[in-house]
Amino acid sequence: QVQLVESGGGLVQPGGSLRLSCVATGRILSIATMGWYRQAPGKQRELVASIAIGGSTNCADSLKGRCTISRDDVKRTVYLQMNSLKPEDTAVYFCNARIRSTGWSDYWGQGAQVTVSS
Question: What does the DSSP 8-state code read for residue 8?
Fold first, then answer.
């Protein structure tokens, strides 16, 4: 059974930095695109950043210049580094990955709370 497990969330002061990690476990044959989404209270889930199997990356406009996504395919892990955090970055952050196990499917992590507050 494939699972995505996030870590690294927590409370950070405005202007601070945070690094989220997400590791994929289980019977995995291949991992394609990996990414991070977030959902703030009362808002829809939105894409934060994604990274393709070849390494090309994309960050949401709201995080441009403050976001770095990377992956380690040996460790089956995707990372999200966020800098200069703002209160409006407060949300639950979800890891997402397109994984080939018995077939290709999209998987989601359980979510990691990130709170930006003084």
Answer: -
Compute φ and ψ for 59, nearest 5 degrees.
Answer: -120, 145
pLDDT tens for each residue of 36-72: 999 999 999 999 999 999 889 999 999 989 999 999 9
Buried/exposed code over 88-113 (b: 16+ C-beta within 10 A; e: otherwise): ebbbbbbbbbbbeeeeeeebebebbe
Tokens 């894409």 identify what position? Answer: 47
Residue 96 in tokens: 């997402």
Which amino acid type is present at position 64? K
Q: Which two tokens stand for residue 43?
A: 């808002």
How far, in Å, CA of 57 to CA of 34, rounded?
10
